[in-house]
Amino acid sequence: MSEPRPLTAEDHMTEKPAHAPADHPALPRPKIGVLIANLGTPDGYDYWPMRRYLNEFLSDKRVIDYPSWKWQPLLQAIILTKRPFSSGKAYQSIWNEEKGESPLMTITRDQTDALRAELEKTYGAEVLVDFCMRYGNPSTKSKVQEMVDAGCQKILFFPLYPHYAGATSATANDQFFRALMDQPWQPAARTVAPYFDNPAYIDALAQSVERAYADLPNAPEKLIVSYHGMPKRYLMQGDPYHCQCQKNTRLLRERLGWSDAQIGTTFQSVFGPEEWLRPYTVEEVARLAREEGIKRIAVIAPAFSADCIETLEEINEEIRESFEHAGGQEFTYIPCLNDEPAHIAMLADVVRENLRGWIS
Percent helix, strand and coil across the chain, each rounded to 5? Predict the structure, then answer.
């Protein structure tokens, strides 16, 4: 993948508005920005970068909604003294040492490059495409500022989460709107809705399953569709995430032409003492091996647009180990869509749809 196109002198070219007085400041030529966002990544896997990242992440009220007086002492005094070591070890096992960054950073940059190239076919240089992270760097605030400085009077903000959840899409949008609060001249803003039921998205997922199965000597007996979990309480409070995940699996099953027995929905990444959405992936894969005698499974994670710690380490290491220790023999992890051409084409179509009325 080529390096991202840097902003050029033309991007920052300024001109005075027509009929403006001589002392009127020159302004950048008007443009439209497309800012894609992902969860985030630590700057390194050592203790302090991990602590800074985890502190920002776990202090987000959208993620952990306990009262601050109750949660912060526990977070600062206990969790952040221990968890950076265990999380850092997990990140180290998947770290892109060549580029000095996490796989999520590498893949998100590649996705941005590919999306930029695709949109340039339609809009030329009128649309600037970049990415930010909700937690860590590059921050949402810094990227909004760069776009405003380059003349973006309209910004389409695109959280790369197929499903809506308060702890993902909503908090990313919150951070985007906070960044706009600092702008003397706010650009017009739009956010992209969830796309979990977009036919092109479902087709891209199905194609990835079909490719993976075609490469295996023996087809898996069951496909586990593992989504990031959340406390069950959030569902009871009205968060639509659980329902959207269930529909995602159903649409994928229908596209593949499979029976209910060939596919199942689970949830991973449980954190804290309260009950989360069930069944838990790590427990379900072990149960399938132990109680149903299933020897071959595949796991796919549609809630993630890019491979990250939850897929490369949690699924492909911890969950694989759970299955194999329970008697499972063949475990296949099907990678996220990442910068697959079908995925990028679908994302570009979503952007074009959301830019209607702003640009032809």
Answer: 50, 20, 35
